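sanity check this record:

:::
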Amino acid sequence: MENNEKKKTNKKFLIILITLVVLGGVYGTFKYMHAQAHEETDDAQVERNMNPIIPRVTGYVTKVYVKDNDLVKKGDTLFVIDDKDYVVRVEDAKAALAAAEGNYEVAKADIGTSSANVSVSEANLQSSKGNIEAAKVRLWRADNDFKRFENLYKNHSITKQQFEQAQATKQEAEAQLKVLQQQQAASNYQKSVSVSRSNVSGKQTEVASANIKRAKAALDAANLNLGYTVVTAQVDGQVSAIDIQPGQLVQPGQSLFYIIGSQETWVVANFKETQLNKMKEGQKVTIKADAFPDTEFEGEITSFSPATGSRFSLLPPDNATGNFVKTVQRLPVKISLTPANDKEKVKLLRPGMNVEVDVHVK
C-alpha cells in the first residue's frame, strides 16, 4: 500500500514538474520572440508645452482675471498692470512727434527762402555782368575820346575845358566800372552765402525728418509698452497655480506662472543605448500610463535626442578625470501621440506622468 502511494505521489510531482517546465519554456520562448520585435522602457514621462507668463513692463498689478487651474483660450486677459505711467509716456511721445513735425515744416520754409535768395543772387550777378560789359564799352569809348582830345589839345585845336571834360568822362567811366566790379564781387559773395544757407537748410530738413522718424519710433514704443500692461494668453491651455495678487509689483522677465498648452501632447522615453540598434523614426509605439492602466495609447517615434541625458545635466560627467566606471547611458526619444487616440483620454494625460512604452521594432 505504501509503495502504491509513493508511486502516485511521484507521478503527481513529475506531472507538476513537467507542466512547470513546459510553461516556463513557453513563457521564455514568448519573451524571447517578443524581445526580438519590441523594445520597452518604463523610464518615460508625458510632456506638453509649458508657456511661462512673463510681463514685459514693470508695474503694480491692478486686477487678476484667472484662478488656479483655470482653462483659458488664446487672447484671454490674464491680469492687468497699472497703466497710468504708460499713458503719460504716450502723450509725451505724441507731443514730441508734433514738435518734430513743426520743426520739419520750418526747415522746409527755410529751404524755400534760401532757394529764392539764391535765385535773386543769381539774377543780380547776371545783371552785374551785363552792366560791367556796358561799362567796359563806355570806358573804351571814353579812353579813345580822351586820347584824341589829348592830341588835339597838344596841337591847341581844342580848349582846355574840352580836354578836361574828356578826361573827366574817362575817369567817370573808370570809376563806374570799378563800382560795378565791386558790386559783382558782392553779388558773388551773396550767392555763395545763399547757397550755403540753402545747403544748411537742406541738412536741417534731413535732421528734422530724422527727428520725426525717431519721435514716431518713440511713440510706437510707448504704445507697445501701454499695450503690454494687459497680459493675455498666447495659447489655449490650463493655467498653473497663480502666485500674484492685486497690488503686487512685477518686473520684466519675471516668470509668474505657466499655461500648459493643450495643442500637443507627446512622450519622452529614455532608452538604454543598448536598445537603440533597431529603433528608428516612424516606428509604432504602444503607450500605457500608470494613471490609466486599462487604456492603451498609440504613438510613433518622432526624433532622437542629439546627446544622452547626462550631457544636458548641470554637471555632466567627465570620464577623463577620476576613476572610470562604465555606466549604460540613456538617450531621450520623442514619441508623438497619433490622431487615432481618443482626444478626451489624451486630455487626461498631464506633463510629468509616468508611462510605459513599447516600441514595435519589427
